[in-house]
Specification:
Distance between the termini of chain B: 48 Å
Largest sheet of chain A: none
Largest interface: A-B, 104 and 110 residues
Structural class of chain A: mainly alpha
Family (chain B): Belongs to the binding-protein-dependent transport system permease family.
Structural class of chain B: mainly alpha
Number of helices of chain A: 13
CATH architecture of chain A: Orthogonal Bundle
CATH class of one domain in chain B: Mainly Alpha
Number of strands of chain A: 0
Shape of chain B: flat
Shape of chain A: globular
Order of helices and strands of chain B: HEEHHHHHHHHHHHH
Helix content of chain B: 55-70%
Distance between the termini of chain A: 26 Å
Number of helices of chain B: 13
CATH superfamily of chain A: MetI-like
Number of strands of chain B: 2
CATH architecture of one domain in chain B: Orthogonal Bundle
Pfam family, one (chain B): BPD_transp_1
Protein name (chain B): Carbohydrate ABC transporter permease
CATH class of chain A: Mainly Alpha
Number of domains of chain A: 1
CATH topology of one domain in chain B: MetI-like fold
Membrane topology (chain B): Multi-pass membrane protein
Oligomer: heterodimer
Order of helices and strands of chain A: HHHHHHHHHHHHH
Radius of gyration of chain A: 23 Å
CATH superfamily of one domain in chain B: MetI-like
Strand content of chain B: under 5%
Keywords (chain B): Cell membrane, Membrane, Transmembrane, Transmembrane helix, Transport
Helix content of chain A: over 70%
Strand order of the largest sheet of chain B: 1-2
Chain lengths: 271, 334
């Protein structure tokens, strides 16, 4: 069915609604604090963008924050993709005792929010004196039941049993099958899962907020939140920080948006 | 993680027929038997090796902390000395159940959950329906709908604080423009909860629309064709073909959104102009997540915070059971 004009109008409204807060973040970041304390609010860009970005970058420790977040999100994404692919392969294509029960546990863990576990984790981190250290954020982020589920769903339909059989007949061990058959076949899904995990870890808020501090070893979210909760009365600076913290991901979306959309939709079917 | 191949390939004839005792064990035969044993070991244990890293990490950072939270909730534990635990039985629970702010937070979590989830999923459904038409530039719209999902809670909350500003905010300006008095989006209970919910709605509507869209595209086209032959209008087709087929997906998104709603934390934390953890000066938009943080990290009572966490866990279990019962009913009725 083709869409009528009303459909396009609604879509346009939703697109504006989606983008407006982002665009307005940039507009506010390009103004100064006085202008933001006037009615009507600004609707177009001012001339203060670069100055504000510069001050926010330094005040919020954003340089270090970017470096840290890239390490955290990168390590987490690569590890989760690797572990999820081998586990997903086992669940999709190998037969072993307890497979059904274990898969149920994986699905069950998707339903338990990580927020409920933060107190013992915090006690562990305090005991190990890991506050303000990146491993405190990285380690818990390596568990992703969603990743295992996602790779399993993909491999069930993308990896024909015959190819595995053929590799077996040629005498390949299970690890060889993983390296030479599973990884090549799973590559598109691995890329998508990696991006989803990167976005998710980049945006993680509660746990990094609890164990890292703005002055210690912040991630971008901790630094941006610190800017908002600090005593900077200058709203345009806060908006500049928010803009800087969001830009890298918007860039990722501008380049890989289509793949990410496809990945979310793929993971959803039979969800 | 480079792992060397421990299992050697079997010889082609011997590998498939294990356990055949060699009548005359020559060197080659013995070698073959050894390879075959290795092969069997590989087939038998490799699956466990593949799933074990996930389960080990889950044990360490998921299950153990969850259970230990229950244990800690029965103790008095202070932030200043997290390793000193004094057994107090259920006192943490009676303390929080006696605290009006706990019930306030529970109510706020419920109302913010409803205000954010219901419109979100309804809009997502409508949006998915439109995206399911043949559209020019459909990929463009899908990516645009997902832009809020790429925006972090921190950045989104901070910009909405300004947009919802009482004196200079864009939203009050627009309301004024159409002749409505300015609203105090911070201090008044319902407006503040609406504002916090707006942040959640903004971030997740597009994501849920894509989930629905994926499910809609999996509906066989001939169902629509036969419905059209029966003279069903588009609206009737939506009601009688689309919605029933989407039932499992709707249930899935409801469950996920419900779980998400019980966890709302960053939005009310950053929306608070007083920059505290009380969810507004009158706790008017304090959620359970925020209450947990306030008890644990501001008041430094980790034991009591654990009791809150376990109460939330029990609520989720109840939600899970209710959901299971409903989905069974639905399945039985269809």
């Amino acid at each position: 069915m083709h869409a009528g004009p009303i459909a396009y109008v609604i879509l346009a409204l939703f697109t504006i609604g989606s983008l407006f807060p982002l665009v307005w973040t940039a507009i506010a970041a390009s103004r100064d604090n006085n202008r933001l304390a006037q009615t009507p609010p600004p609707f177009w860009f001012g001339g203060n963008l670069l100055d504000n970005l510069d001050v926010a970058w330094n005040d919020a420790n954003l340089g270090e924050a970017f470096f840290n977040t890239t390490i955290v999100a990168g390590t987490s994404a690569v590890t989760v993709v690797f572990l999820s692919t081998i586990a997903g392969f086992a669940f999709a294509k190998l037969k072993f005792r307890g497979r059904g029960a274990m898969m149920l546990i994986v699905i069950g863990t998707m339903m338990v929010p990580p927020q409920l576990s933060v107190i013992p984790l915090y006690m562990m981190v305090a005991k190990l004196e890991w506050t303000d250290q990146l491993q405190a954020v990285i380690l818990p982020s390596l568990v992703s039941a969603f990743g295992v589920f996602f790779m399993r769903q993909y491999l069930i339909q993308a990896l024909p049993d015959e190819i595995i059989e053929a590799a077996r007949v040629d005498g390949a061990s299970s690890w060889r099958v993983v390296w030479h058959v599973v990884f090549p076949a799973a590559r598109p899904a691995m890329a998508v899962l990696g991006m989803l995990m990167f976005v998710q870890t980049w945006n993680d808020f509660l746990w990094p907020f609890l164990v890292l501090s703005q002055t210690g070893n912040p991630t971008v979210q901790v630094a941006v939140a610190g800017l908002g909760r600090g005593y900077t009365p200058d709203q345009s600076l806060i908006m500049a920080g928010a803009l800087l913290g969001t830009l890298p991901l918007l860039l990722v979306f501008a380049i890989f948006g289509k793949q990410i959309v496809g990945g979310i939709m793929q993971g959803a079917v039979k969800g | 993680m480079a792992t060397h191949d421990t299992a050697a390939p079997p010889t082609k004839e011997g590998g498939a027929a294990p356990g055949r005792p060699p009548a005359d064990p020559t060197g080659a035969e013995r070698r073959r038997a050894r390879l075959s044993r290795r092969w069997q070991r590989d087939m038998r244990w490799s699956p466990y090796a593949f799933v074990s890293p996930f389960f080990l990490l889950f044990l360490a950072f998921g299950l153990f902390p969850l259970i230990y939270t229950g244990w800690a909730s029965l103790h008095q534990v202070e932030m200043t000395a997290p390793t000193d635990m004094e057994w107090v039985g259920l006192r943490n629970y009676t303390r929080i159940f006696d605290d009006d702010f706990f019930w306030n937070a529970a109510k706020n979590t419920l109302t913010i959950g409803i205000i954010s989830t219901v419109p979100q999923l309804l809009m997502a459904m409508g949006l998915a329906h439109i995206l399911n038409y043949k559209l020019r530039g459909s990929t463009f719209y899908r990516v645009m709908m997902l832009a809020p999902y790429a925006t972090s809670i921190a950045a989104a909350s901070l910009v909405f604080v300004l947009l919802f500003g009482r004196d200079y905010g864009m939203i009050n300006w627009a309301l004024d423009f159409v002749g409505i008095d300015p609203v105090d989006w911070q201090s008044d209970k319902w407006p503040s909860q609406f504002a916090v919910s707006t942040i959640v709605i903004w971030r997740w509507t597009g994501y849920n629309a894509l989930i629905y869209l994926a499910a809609m595209q999996a509906i066989p086209q001939d169902l629509y064709e036969s419905a059209a032959l029966d003279g069903a209008s588009r609206w009737k087709q939506f009601l009688h073909v689309t919605l029933p087929s989407l039932r499992p997906t709707i249930l899935f998104t409801v469950v996920v959104s419900t779980i998400g709603a019980t966890q709302v934390f960053g939005e009310p934390l950053l929306f608070d102009a007083n920059k505290g953890a009380s969810g507004g000066s009158e706790h008017q938009f304090q959620t359970l997540g925020l209450y947990l943080y306030e008890q644990g990290w501001v008041n430094q009572h980790l034991g009591r915070a654990s009791a809150i966490a376990w109460t939330m866990f029990l609520i989720l279990i109840v939600v899970g059971i209710v959901n299971y019962v409903i989905s069974r009913r639905l399945r039985a009725s269809s």
